[in-house]
Amino acid sequence: MPRFLHAWLMLGPALLLLAAFTHVPALATLWHALFSTPTPRRPAVFVGLNNYAALAEDPIFWQALWNNLLYALGTVPMSIALALAMALWVNGRLRGRTAMRIAFFTPTVLPMIAVANLWLFFYTPDYGMIDRLTRLLLGWGPTNWIGSQETALGAMMAIAVWKEAGFFMIFYLAALQAIPPSLLEAASLEGASRGRIFWRVTLPLLGPTTLFIAVNAVINSFRLVDHILVMTQGGPDNATALLMTYIYETGFRFWDTAQASALTGVLLAVLAVIAALQFSLLGRRTHYR
User: ABC transmembrane type-1 domain: from which residue to which, for each copy (predicted)?
Assistant: First the structure.
């Protein structure tokens, strides 16, 4: 059997599932965005780019897009930095490091709905854990963390970072353990400090892992909105509305499937642009050998 045929046979089932549950639905969504929403009395008609034109005049869409960009800028770098710090910590010779790894990874395995209800208690004004700590350490009064426009989006960012950092830590930990100790020993014998070894040896070798984590972190920043739907439903006054929450609200609350398809098309375009930028900027500095 030719080698290329054997490879395609091995990849075939995965490619079939990927096409059936990812690519075909995405193309179907882009196609439906060119039609109006069907009703029992009126079938869908071709409207071209009218749904996208309506989005351009929708202030809630622009606010959701801006919120989502802020959400990504706030959660992606923080999740990556925290994951790397935790991986470096538990990768060393530390007593109880197994327990520490489990503790850091535990938020990842919790359902997002359970996480939302847990943090809903933390953010409760006056008697929640956050208010008790701020009153004890800073002397602040009660704060409505998820009911105020100034703090609601930041509160949602904190939950996302807490939930995802442990998951990304596992990838960094595996990458750190794959680094040949001889490279670190050689740099140490040359007189390099620990900080220089990290910046010149460890961090460049973690490049492929960082690129992989960065792409997934950006996707998650646009995809994981369960806690927002449970805790704020996009409020107050759309302060925590993201593209995915707006898609859900448009498609399943108002049953405007055409407009929801157009929103999904915008979301896919934004993710494609960001991914292309990540691969073009980070890919040049990433070495796999």
Answer: 65-276
Measured distance CA(85)–CA(147) in Å, rounded: 32
How many C-beta neighbours within 10 Å does residue 132 have?
A: 13
In the chain, where are the structural domains located? 61-283
> Please, are residues 1 and 14 in contact by the beta-carbon 8 Å criterion?
no
Distance, CA of 172 to CA of 267 (rounded, Å): 28
Which one, of 151, 143, 148, 150, lies nearest residue 124 by Cα? 143
- Residue 249: CB atoms within 10 A of its CB come to 19
Angle between helices 59-91 and 152-178 (to 10 degrees): 40
Contact residues for 281 (Cβ-Cβ < 8 A; gap 6+):
none
Is the preceding peptide bond at 236 cis, omega within 30 degrees of 0?
A: yes
Interatomic CA distance for residues 244 and 253, integer angstroms: 13
| pLDDT tens column, 47-106 | 999 999 999 999 999 999 999 999 999 999 999 999 999 999 998 777 888 898 999 999
Comparing CA positions, the residue from 161, 175, 162 lying closest to residue 91 is 175
- In 3D, which of 229, 218, 243, 237 has the Cα closest to residue 116? 229
Give residue-wise pLDDT tens across range 237-255. Answer: 999 999 999 999 999 989 9
Q: Around Cβ 189, how many Cβ atoms within 10 Å?
A: 8
Widest CA span of the chain, in angstroms? 79
Cβ contact 4:12 at 8 Å? no
Q: How far is CA 62 from the centre of its chain?
A: 20
- The amino acid sitting at 75 is T
d(CA 232, CA 242): 11
Write out the two tokens for 63: 């606010």
